[in-house]
Amino acid sequence: ILQxxxxxxxxxxxxxxxxxxxxxxxxxxxxxxxxxxxxxxHIELQKVGxxxxxxxxxxxxxYRSSRKILNGVSLxxxxxxxxxxxxxxGCGKSxxxxxxxxxxYPELGTLFLDNIDLQLLSQASLHGAIAIVPQDTxxxxxxxQMPRGYNTIVGERxxxxxxxxxxxxxIARAFLKAPRLLICDEATSALDSNTEVEVLKTxxxxxxxxxxxxxxxxxxxxxHCDKILVMDNGSIIEEGTHKDLLSRGGTYANMWSSQELKExxxxxxx
Length: 270
Ligand code: ATP
Prior knowledge:
The chain is an alpha/beta fold. The protein has helices spanning 2-33, 93-100, 123-129, 140-144, 163-176, 193-207, 242-248, 251-265; strands spanning 54-61, 70-77, 82-86, 108-113, 116-117, 130-133, 181-185, 211-216, 227-232, 235-240. The protein starts with a helix and ends in a 5-residue tail after the last helix. Adenosine-5'-triphosphate is lined by residues 63, 65, 69, 89-95.
């Protein structure tokens, strides 16, 4: 018995190894044969001006789960306009941006860029026309502090950048690209108030003439936008300028007064 137990044990290991390898192969083949759910289109956006027209009509969307995330969202941004999307965490703000970038298709509804159905546009022309500014930004001055300014070489063989510096370079790149649509996702969320004022001024100068979409929590950063959309639970519940929305005395006005109160109680670090 002792003589055959070792080979039997070995066969047992071999069997388990073989079974795991076959399962891994099956998983791999499933990935390889999965067709991308988002297809590329063939129409190119024409550079007709510095801004772009955005139109979303009746967008409905859910991720794989059954919960509805967008429930009939419509919005329009004319070339050169800046619009802001505000609302509580999880209400669907970034999901609108993801649909606009064609990461997903809406379940129902249509998106048009310059009056062309987003689904028909080529990925290359989408990438060429849109830039995204991520969180926590500082702009031009930070780049100029590097020895070679905008000619600084980054990447494996170049300067090693910290996470924050990488973000700043991403901003600089976004602007050098001269995008016709600029998407800013909480661009000033974690900045102290002095830096915030500088960043907002730079963003304002650089975004002039372009169409801009700001996704924001802090209302002070978006109060000058041409249009503010207030979302709740997958729907736009209020729409107007800062002044319109304050005089309406609804959700936005409440958000504004509670943020003012909070900032008075907990001022940002200088
Ligand atoms: P925040 O202000 O916190 O960034 P948001 O309003 O931008 O929130 P979204 O990011 O659009 O909200 O998310 C809306 C809802 O969809 C949330 O409940 C979120 O958990 C869910 N969600 C987001 N991405 C996915 C995903 N890839 N798969 C499944 N659910 C998701």
